[in-house]
């Protein structure tokens, strides 16, 4: 589903002493089927941005279009329900929103609210619990008896059960151990491709932006600071450092090796083994 | 001789009688002015360990000593004054209506005179880079900013030990570095033991010592350098080593004679430079 931001500004508490401009003249387009990473320093406007995607916030100026729904500044938002049906948001720490007695009821809650038929819901529950890597044997158990990582998977299943076409992920791996982080991101990546989703991923992890996204939007002070393919954006180390962001560590290490030893290694998403082999070869060659 | 500040003697813990054992006969110590990082995958018992350190939980078996005191109901308040704790989710630790008030809350509870309070608030907010936000409402801050204020609130009380229980998990990379820098700075100014419970391997490299928890047991205890030499073993319990260690392992396998386990880019570069110029 195409997403378009056209000159979007958002002001918290306008005309009050607390007035705060969180987004300013933001324009960009996300073509259907993209996996977009939104990065930016804490307070750069990332969270405000994604709250426009399912109409939790409406723009103060400009317009946001998701598929065939448009949120226009100044006019009462229409079709919000249709929008929220299509845009699934996985908030930070989604497991805090679990509340039902059983895992099955919790996953069913969203589709039930959107009036999906009982039989259809049952089927979706089966599908999604497996999609998030849990067993359907667990459905009758209480979500609160699960480990933190499992609870998060149940919460994610609840979002997936609404069959969204757009998936918005706000730091979905925060607080998980490295293995859990990788598993959850690999899962989203797989779903993205299998279900042909449009995915918007807000992240502090430059490594994740590099590994999963095909496009990166860099936010700073409510403005779009940079945009482009990950390898292009992460070439601009100085520009990123200026707004409190780093480049992925592997790119940083490659740069440092080049500078210190006068090498010409280029990072183009090769594995660490491949990169080390190139480096070793060049280092050995250089020392003869 | 290093003086122990905190000690666990054969500590076991389970949340309920019918629930699994979270800590199984754990004995560890943290010395005065030492920085210990505790890592382990989710459910390995590391957060439970943190909560036992300042009496938020008490052991089913074994003893917890803090500054020579055996943790008990009588001295729990004295111990909590000595051991400050910052949690993962900053939203659960705010009480004040402004940032300044929030930092003041802990100080008021400890009966610090007003003049001293004003000084400490300014100082600790500056230490976490939040001095410009004194009069802001905490709930309007972003997650990272909130966490920095929470850390300032703990630092202001001047405890002998600070526990950061995944306190940087929600911060962006720059924010994490700032906090780590802050911890380093505070340690230079005065004696304080630090325990960081973390998943961030770069934070681990900054610690004096690492304790790795696995299934309720101490799986490893030693320096970060010693730890990251155990690449395969660490991966077998679901943990990993930093990128620079991986890179060094690979180079070594390719015949480059990298001797020391590097903890950061500079160490690796220096080592390679020496090799480079002597061959």
Shape of chain B: globular
**Termini separation of chain B:** 42 Å
Element-by-element helix/strand order of chain A: EEEHEEHEHHHEHEHEEHHHH
Highest CATH level, the class of the largest domain in chain B:
Alpha Beta
* Mean pLDDT rating of chain B: 88
- Poorly predicted regions of chain A are none
User: Portion of residues in helices of chain B?
Assistant: 25-40%
- Can you name the CATH architecture of the largest domain in chain A? 3-Layer(aba) Sandwich
Characterization of this structure:
The complex is a heterodimer of chains A (288) and B (279). Chain A is of the alpha/beta class and 288 residues long. Chain A has two domains: 3-246, Rossmann fold (3-Layer(aba) Sandwich); 248-288, no CATH class. Chain A is 40% helix and 22% strand. Chain A contains eleven helices and ten strands. In chain A, strands 6-7-8-3-9-10 form a six-stranded mixed beta sheet. The longest helix of chain A is centred in the middle third of the chain and has 17 residues, at 178-194. The mean pLDDT of chain A is 92. Chain B is of the alpha/beta class. Chain B folds into two domains: 4-241, P-loop containing nucleotide triphosphate hydrolases (Rossmann fold), CATH 3.40.50; 242-279, no CATH class. In chain B, 40% of the residues lie in helices and 22% in strands. Chain B contains eleven helices and ten strands. In chain B, strands 6-7-8-3-9-10 form a six-stranded mixed beta sheet, sandwiched between helices. Chain B has a four-stranded antiparallel beta sheet with strand order 2-1-4-5, with helices on one face. In chain B, helix 4 (114-127) crosses helix 5 (143-156). The longest helix of chain B is centred in the middle third of the chain and has 17 residues, at 173-189. Chain B is globular and about 65 Å long. The termini of chain B are far apart. The model of chain B has no long low-confidence stretch (mean pLDDT 88). Classes of the chains: A alpha/beta (288), B alpha/beta (279). The A-B interface holds A 18, 41-43, 47, 92-93, 147-149, 171, 174-181, 204-206, 244-246, 249-250, 252-253, 256-257, 260-261, 272-273, 275-277, 279-280, 283-284, 286-287 and B 40-43, 88-89, 140, 142-145, 166, 169-175, 199, 201, 238-240, 243-244, 246-247, 250-251, 254-256, 265, 269, 272-273, 275-276, 279.
């Amino acid at each position: 589903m195409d997403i378009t931001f056209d000159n979007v500004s958002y002001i918290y508490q306008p005309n009050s002493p607390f007035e705060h401009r969180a987004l300013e003249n933001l324009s960009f387009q996300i073509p259907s089927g993209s996996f977009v990473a939104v990065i930016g320093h804490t307070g750069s406007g990332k969270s405000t941005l994604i709250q426009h995607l399912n109409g939790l916030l409406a723009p103060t100026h400009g317009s946001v279009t998701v598929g065939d729904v448009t949120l226009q500044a100044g006019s009462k938002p229409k079709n919000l329900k249709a929008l929220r049906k299509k845009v699934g948001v996985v908030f930070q720490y989604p497991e805090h929103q679990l509340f039902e007695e059983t895992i099955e009821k919790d996953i069913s809650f969203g589709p039930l609210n959107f009036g999906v038929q009982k039989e259809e819901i049952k089927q979706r529950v089966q599908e999604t619990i497996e999609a998030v890597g849990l067993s359907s044997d667990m459905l009758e158990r209480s979500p609160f008896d699960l480990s933190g990582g499992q609870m998060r998977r149940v919460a994610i299943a609840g979002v997936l059960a609404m069959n969204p076409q757009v998936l918005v992920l706000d730091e979905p791996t925060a607080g998980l151990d490295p293995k859990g982080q990788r598993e959850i991101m690999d899962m989203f990546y797989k779903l993205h491709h299998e279900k042909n989703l449009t995915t918007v991923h807000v992240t502090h992890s430059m490594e994740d932006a590099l590994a999963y996204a095909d496009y990166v939007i860099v936010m700073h002070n409510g403005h779009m600071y940079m945009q482009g393919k990950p390898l292009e954006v992460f070439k601009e180390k100085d520009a990123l450092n200026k707004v409190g962001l780093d480049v992925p560590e592997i790119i940083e290490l490659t740069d440092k090796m080049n500078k210190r030893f006068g090498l010409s290694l280029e990072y183009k998403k090769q594995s660490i083994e491949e990169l080390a082999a190139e480096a070793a070869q060049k280092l050995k060659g250089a020392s003869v | 001789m290093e003086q122990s500040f905190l000690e666990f003697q054969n500590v076991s813990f389970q949340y309920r009688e019918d629930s699994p054992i979270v800590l199984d006969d754990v004995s560890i110590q943290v010395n005065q002015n030492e920085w210990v990082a505790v890592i382990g995958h989710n459910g390995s018992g590391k957060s439970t360990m943190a909560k036992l350190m300042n009496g938020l939980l008490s052991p089913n078996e074994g003893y917890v000593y803090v500054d020579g005191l055996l943790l008990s109901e009588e001295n729990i308040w004295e111990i909590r004054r000595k051991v400050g704790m910052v949690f993962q989710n900053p939203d659960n630790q705010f009480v004040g209506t402004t940032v300044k008030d929030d930092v003041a809350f802990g100080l008021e509870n400890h009966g610090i005179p007003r003049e001293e309070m004003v000084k400490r608030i300014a100082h600790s907010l500056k230490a976490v880079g939040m001095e410009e936000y004194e009069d802001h409402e905490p709930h309007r801050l972003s997650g990272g900013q909130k966490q920095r204020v929470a850390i300032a609130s703990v630092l202001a009380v001047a405890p002998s030990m600070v526990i950061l229980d995944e306190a940087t998990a929600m911060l962006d990379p720059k924010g994490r570095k700032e906090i780590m820098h802050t911890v380093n700075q505070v340690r230079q100014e005065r004696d304080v033991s630090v325990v960081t419970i973390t998943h961030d391997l770069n934070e681990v490299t900054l610690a004096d010592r690492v304790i790795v928890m696995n299934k309720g047991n101490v799986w490893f205890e030693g320096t970060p350098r010693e730890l990251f030499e155990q690449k395969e073993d660490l991966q077998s319990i679901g943990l990993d080593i930093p990128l620079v260690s991986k890179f060094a392992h690979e180079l070594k396998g390719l015949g480059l004679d990298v001797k020391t386990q590097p903890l950061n880019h500079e160490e690796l570069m220096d080592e390679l430079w020496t090799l480079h110029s002597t061959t």
